[in-house]
Structures are given as C-alpha cells and as structure tokens.
Amino acid sequence: MSVAIQNWEKRHAALVMLRLLTKKLLRAISILPSRGTDNNILEFDEDVEETKVIPTDVKEGHFAVIAGEDGKQKRFILELRYLRNPEFLGLLEQAKEEYGFRQEGVLILPCQPEELQKILEVSTKINR
Fold first, then answer.
1. How far does CA 73 lie from the centroid of its chain?
2. CB 84: neighbour CB atoms within 10 A?
3. How confident is the model at residue 17 (pLDDT cuts 50, 70, 90)?
4. What's the CA gap between 64 and 51, in Å, rounded?
5. Residue 5 has pLDDT above 60, yes or no
6. Residue 70 has pLDDT above 70, yes or no
7. Please, are residues 78 and 117 in contact by the beta-carbon 8 Å criterion?
8. Which of 4, 9, 10, 45 has CA 20 to 30 A from 67's CA?
9. What pTM did the predictor assign?
10. In the sheet where 107-109 sits, what is the strand order?
11. Strand 62-69 and strand 107-109: pairing?
12. pLDDT-based confidence at residue 116 (cuts at 50, 70, 90)
C-alpha cells in the first residue's frame, strides 16, 4: 500500500472520529442549562484551561456526590438510576437552590450523609 493511501486513511479515520465527537458534544451541550437571559443562548467560561478528570473509582454509569452539612461530609458513588428517584431529585433541587449551577467539582448535596444513605437504602429495597 502506498504512503499516500495510508496517510489518506489515517486522515479519514481522524475525521470520522472528530465527527462522532462533535455529535456527542452537541448532544451534551443541548442538555446544559442556559446561563444567559436568553434561553436560546448558552454561555461558556472562556478561561477554562483544563478538563476535569473523572476519578478512577467512578465507573461508567456512575457519578460521585458528597453529602454534607455542618462540616460532616461523606462521599458516595451512585448509579445513574438514582437520578430517577424523587427523593434524590429533591436533594438535587435543594443543591440547585443553595449552590446554583456554577458549583465546580464534585456535586455537594445539602443533607447529612445519614439522610442520603436512607434514601439510597429505600430506593434499593424498592428496586429489588
């Protein structure tokens, strides 16, 4: 195979990957809340220099949260299915009211770790 064909195949493969990545990014951006006054415009911080790294203990299909108030905090790694739990969604709503959408890093829930643990246990029992 000639060098020109090999180079073309590499460029083609890179373009296909770029196209797939662009589609995924556009899908992800479409679900972000608007920060501007016009709901059709998304605003981004231009001074963001580095991508946040997902911790190695957070597996695919999971996310990390910290439950904590009054200096008592505990980290939880949850399955995505908890995003359908009405009580957990209530905690997310409280977090939105308390911290807004500009919270950086791990999501902090404004509750005692024991409260979140009870919600998770009840949800697990219901789903069995």
1. 20
2. 10
3. confident
4. 17
5. yes
6. yes
7. no
8. 45
9. 0.55
10. 72-79, 62-69, 107-109
11. parallel
12. very high
What residue type is assigned to position 19 of the chain? R
Which H, E and C letters describe the chain, residue by residue? CCHHHHHHHHHHHHHHHHHHHHHHHHHHHHCCCCCCCCCCCCCCCCCCCCCCCCCCCCCCCEEEEEEEECCEEEEEEEEHHHHHCHHHHHHHHHHHHHHCCCCCCCEEECCCHHHHHHHHHHHHHHCC
Q: Which two tokens stand for residue 69?
A: 């108030």
Six-digit token pair at 6?
A: 């090999």
- Specify whether the CB–CB gap between 83 and 125 falls below 8 A: no
Q: Which residue has the tokens 């008592």?
A: 72
Residue 116's nearest CA partner among 92, 80, 84 is 92
Residues 32-68 pLDDT 10s: 544 444 444 444 444 444 446 667 888 889 988 999 8
